[in-house]
Structures are given as structure tokens and as C-alpha cells.
Amino acid sequence: MELKLTGKKALVTGGSRGIGRGIVLGLARAGADVVTCYRTESEAVTSLARELKETGGNHQLVKADVSDPAEVDALVEDCRTSLGSLDVVVHNAGVISHVPFAELPVEEWRRVVENNLGGPYLVTQRALPLLSAGGSIIFIGSRVATVGIPLRSHYTATKAGLVGLTRSLAKELGPRGLRVNVVAPGPVETEEPAPAEVRERYQKMIPLGRLGTPEDVAGVVAFLASDLSRFVNGETINVDGGI
């Protein structure tokens, strides 16, 4: 039994940094052709393009805001043009902020909801014509969805919403042979390291004694993208070290 994604065609939103970048590189290195999108030009985008070129395969980086219907349409059209079809859609793009609920402006509530829930709605709906039986839709949620955390009520609400969206779509799209699941990371250390005191606090809470890495999340995404998970549907898989 071996995890191979050779011949798979994937779309990953928000793939230039952090967990998204780990997912893009993980899928590409497992043999998939990957289209990913980013919001703003940066050195991270340039370096990712370089890494993907060195990896080999048919990969594309597209500038797109997943909360904008017109830009999502253009992104999906790029997938159709460059890949022809899709086997995997990974929803990673999202935003976060830390605001006391009593002071949370309606504009900030809407921004987070439109990106973290509206983006997955738009991308999934528009990408459906490119997905056929055996396809896998993967939402990147968060462990906080079932725990809650102060100052992130808006963010937590959107991640909890992804669980409900997943359960409904698993039942609605299952008859078409499509699987829909959530990967819910716990504390993950990316290219922007957590402050020492935060890292130490989480290490004490996590039985494995460390924070997660983008690669830890990418491995579970690759499993859900592969045929090894062909009977896994409607699930939330926590990747949190047992916190």
C-alpha cells in the first residue's frame, strides 16, 4: 500500500505561505499537478514558483481573491485551461484577526466570513463541473472550531461553519462519487515563528511535546487526496498532536 498522487490534478487556494505552501509542495512532490492561488505578489510566491519548477510537473500560480466571484471564475477557468479537469480541491485560503467581540466591527466580521466561508462556497461551487467521481474536496479548518478561543469569535465561527458545510456536502455530493472532509490543524509553527512563551505553553499542552508543522498537515491532506481514503467522507480529522 503506497500513497501516490501521480496523474491527480489539484487546486489549492492560498498556497504561497504556511500550511498552504506545505500542502502545495506535498501534493506536487507526491506526483500531482497543482494550481494554487495567492492574493498579493511577494517573495514567497517567487520562491514557491522556483520550488515547483524544481519539483517537476504541470504547476501554475494564479493571483486570485477567493472572496471575489469574478476572480474565482477566472481561477477555475485557469484550472480548466491548464489541467483540463480536477481530482482534488483544497480550501486553505483564509484570514484571521484578534478582536474582542464587544469591539468587533461589522466590516471585520463580514471580511472574515466572506473569505473563510464565502471563499470555500464560491470555489467549490464553481469547481464542481471539473470534478468527477473519485474527486476529493478538502477544507482546512481549525481545532479551535470545537474549543473556542478568546478574541477570535468571528474566525472560530467560520471554521465551525466549515464542519457543517462538509457534513451537508458529503451527503449531497456523495452520490456523485465526491468525498468532502475537513482537516483541522492545532497549533502549527510556520515561517513566522511563535513567540517563545507561546511555544512553551503549547508544548506543555501537546502530548507530543511540540508544535505542528505544515508538513504534518500536508501529509493528512495527501492521504485524503489519494485513493487510500476512498471511503472517508464527511469527517473532520484533527492534526493537533493530541492537545
Automatic annotation (TrEMBL):
| InterPro entries membership | KR_dom, NAD(P)-bd_dom_sf, Sc_DH/Rdtase_CS, SDR_fam
Q: Which SMART domains match?
A: PKS_KR
- Locate the Ketoreductase domain: which residues? 8-186
Which terms does the record give in the GO molecular function aspect?
A: oxidoreductase activity, acting on the CH-OH group of donors, NAD or NADP as acceptor
Keyword Plastid appears in the UniProt entry: no
Picking any one GO biological process from the record gives: fatty acid elongation
Would you tell me the protein name for this molecule?
Answer: NAD dependent epimerase/dehydratase family protein
Origin organism is Streptosporangium roseum (strain ATCC 12428 / DSM 43021 / JCM 3005 / KCTC 9067 / NCIMB 10171 / NRRL 2505 / NI 9100)
